[in-house]
Amino acid sequence: MKTSLNIIVRPTEIDVNGHVNNAKYLEYLEWGREEWYEAGNLHYDVLKGLGVQTVTVNININYRKECRQGERLNISTESHKLGLSSFVLLQQIHNTDGELCADAAVTIVTIDIRTRKSRPVPEELRALFLPASS
């Protein structure tokens, strides 16, 4: 599954160098992941009802091009790799000229909400990694 989220860079996201602070890109990616969960009908309460939470355990990000205040950005998030208790999402941030500003591979683990230990990815979440039906 692949999703897309459009945002506008706000003044509070700019650092002393006049561009988006590097930590804000991580926040943008988080917003993109939340959009991905929502599009898959797996918002927090649904996951909690399944007895799981998802925890980000690794983000490998490449900063490709600076972004500035007022720019419109698109954050895409797509299913990439599925393991037993973990999965990887690929994310990209593009500007309106289509230039790649950042890309990341994000590894996420599903944990049991009671034991706080990893557990298998539930079928409802696994389904988001299946090819789309035509």
UniProtKB/TrEMBL annotation:
Name of this protein: Acyl-CoA thioester hydrolase/thioesterase-3
Alphabetized UniProt keyword annotations: Hydrolase
Gene3D superfamilies tied to this protein: Hotdog Thioesterase (3.10.129.10)
Any GO molecular function: hydrolase activity
Superkingdom, natural source: Bacteria
EC numbers for this chain: 3.1.2.-
InterPro entries documented for this protein: 4-hydroxybenzoyl-CoA_TE (IPR050563), HotDog_dom_sf (IPR029069), YbgC/YbaW (IPR006684)
Record family assignment: Belongs to the 4-hydroxybenzoyl-CoA thioesterase family.
